[in-house]
Amino acid sequence: MGAVYKAFDHVLDRDIAVKTIRFANDATEAEIRDLRDRFLREARTVARSSKHKNIVQIYDIGAERDFPFIAMELV
Protein backbone atom coordinates (compact mmCIF):
# COMPACT_ATOMS: atom_id res chain seq x y z
CA MET A 1 0.00 0.00 0.00
CA GLY A 2 2.80 2.45 0.73
CA ALA A 3 6.36 3.18 1.64
CA VAL A 4 8.13 4.67 4.65
CA TYR A 5 11.17 6.90 4.28
CA LYS A 6 13.63 8.33 6.74
CA ALA A 7 13.58 12.13 6.46
CA PHE A 8 14.85 15.17 8.30
CA ASP A 9 12.63 17.90 9.73
CA HIS A 10 14.68 21.07 9.22
CA VAL A 11 12.29 23.23 11.26
CA LEU A 12 12.48 21.07 14.40
CA ASP A 13 15.98 19.70 13.69
CA ARG A 14 15.16 15.99 14.03
CA ASP A 15 14.95 12.78 12.06
CA ILE A 16 11.43 11.63 11.23
CA ALA A 17 9.68 8.91 9.26
CA VAL A 18 7.44 9.85 6.33
CA LYS A 19 4.84 7.33 5.20
CA THR A 20 3.25 7.69 1.77
CA ILE A 21 0.74 5.68 -0.20
CA ARG A 22 1.16 4.42 -3.72
CA PHE A 23 -1.53 4.29 -6.34
CA ALA A 24 -1.53 1.74 -9.15
CA ASN A 25 -1.17 3.38 -12.55
CA ASP A 26 -4.56 2.00 -13.55
CA ALA A 27 -6.33 2.87 -10.27
CA THR A 28 -9.82 4.26 -10.65
CA GLU A 29 -10.94 7.47 -8.94
CA ALA A 30 -13.00 5.35 -6.53
CA GLU A 31 -9.96 3.21 -5.64
CA ILE A 32 -7.82 6.30 -5.09
CA ARG A 33 -10.51 7.88 -2.90
CA ASP A 34 -10.78 4.64 -0.89
CA LEU A 35 -7.00 4.49 -0.34
CA ARG A 36 -6.91 8.13 0.76
CA ASP A 37 -9.77 7.51 3.20
CA ARG A 38 -8.05 4.43 4.65
CA PHE A 39 -4.79 6.36 4.98
CA LEU A 40 -6.53 9.18 6.87
CA ARG A 41 -8.32 6.66 9.13
CA GLU A 42 -4.94 5.07 9.91
CA ALA A 43 -3.44 8.45 10.85
CA ARG A 44 -6.41 9.30 13.06
CA THR A 45 -6.34 5.91 14.77
CA VAL A 46 -2.61 6.16 15.48
CA ALA A 47 -2.98 9.75 16.71
CA ARG A 48 -5.71 8.71 19.17
CA SER A 49 -3.60 5.80 20.41
CA SER A 50 -0.24 7.54 20.49
CA LYS A 51 -0.15 7.94 24.26
CA HIS A 52 0.86 4.28 24.40
CA LYS A 53 4.62 3.78 24.70
CA ASN A 54 4.70 1.27 21.82
CA ILE A 55 2.90 3.45 19.27
CA VAL A 56 4.71 6.15 17.31
CA GLN A 57 3.79 9.81 17.54
CA ILE A 58 2.13 11.44 14.53
CA TYR A 59 3.65 14.86 13.85
CA ASP A 60 1.75 15.93 10.73
CA ILE A 61 -0.37 14.75 7.81
CA GLY A 62 -0.70 16.38 4.44
CA ALA A 63 -0.19 16.00 0.73
CA GLU A 64 2.60 16.94 -1.62
CA ARG A 65 1.75 17.01 -5.34
CA ASP A 66 -1.46 15.11 -4.58
CA PHE A 67 0.40 12.33 -2.71
CA PRO A 68 -0.76 12.01 0.91
CA PHE A 69 1.84 11.59 3.66
CA ILE A 70 2.08 11.03 7.39
CA ALA A 71 5.09 12.52 9.19
CA MET A 72 5.79 10.51 12.32
CA GLU A 73 8.30 9.61 14.96
CA LEU A 74 11.25 7.65 13.63
CA VAL A 75 11.91 4.46 15.59
Walk me through what this model shows.
By secondary structure, the protein is α+β, with helices and mostly antiparallel strands. The chain contains one helix and four strands. Strands 1-2-4-3 form a four-stranded antiparallel β-sheet, with helices on one face. Strand 3 and strand 4 form a beta hairpin. The radius of gyration is 13 Å and the shape is globular. The two termini are 20 Å apart. The model has no long low-confidence stretch (mean pLDDT 90).
Largest sheet: 4 strands, antiparallel
Unreliable residue runs: none
How much helicity do the residues have?
25-40%
Give the DSSP E fraction (strand runs of 2 or more residues): 35-45%
Strand order of the largest sheet: 1-2-4-3
Short description:
The protein is α+β, with helices and mostly antiparallel strands and 75 residues long. The chain is built from one helix and four strands.
Which key phrases capture this entry?
75 residues, alpha+beta, 28% helix
Q: Mind sketching the topology for me?
A:
Blueprint: E1 2-9, E2 14-21, H1 29-49, E3 58-64, E4 67-73
